[in-house]
Amino acid sequence: MKQFNDSHLEVKKFFTGRFETHPYEVGWADEAIFFVLVEKTEGDPVFTAQVQISQDGVHWAPDGSEPVSFKGEGQHAIKVQPNFGNWLRLAVKIEGGSMFLNLHIACKG
């Protein structure tokens, strides 16, 4: 039987500019997906994110995928490439306004 875990990384507050999510240890998982729920927006913001990987949770590198961008309210998914190692986070840039976010990572393995 596979294990499944859904964890909050950033919860219910307005974000703007650049930030990284809290890192999450995922060495046990076979797959991971970030879920970004945009509940409200101010202005006309664009959300852009790059998945980052780490062997130790301290030093970070892009995972090799293209950055993901979207606009608007609702649920958005960012799939993580396979073979992601021990730790994951998102490097995020929000331009043109702010977004009220609820950001999760879902893992199974």
Brief overview, please?
This protein is mostly beta strands. The protein is built from no helices and 7 strands.
Keywords:
Jelly Rolls, about 110 residues, 7 strands, mainly beta, seven-stranded antiparallel beta sheet
Fold and architecture overview:
The protein has strands spanning 4-20, 24-25, 31-54, 61-62, 68-71, 74-79, 87-108. The chain has 109 residues and is mostly beta strands. It has a single domain (4-108), classed as Jelly Rolls (Sandwich), CATH 2.60.120. 23% of the residues are buried.
CATH architecture field: Sandwich
Gyration radius, to the nearest Å?
Answer: 14 Å
Structural class: mainly beta
Please name the CATH topology.
Answer: Jelly Rolls
Determine and state the CATH class.
Mainly Beta
Q: What is the rounded distance between the termini?
A: 9 Å
Proportion of helical residues: under 10%
N-to-C SSE series? EEEEEEE
Q: What is the tally of helical segments?
A: 0
Tell me the β content: over 45%
* Outline type: globular
- Please count the beta strands (DSSP E, at least 2 residues each): 7
**How would you sum up the major sheet?**
7 strands, antiparallel
Number of domains: 1
Low-confidence stretches: none
Average pLDDT score: 96
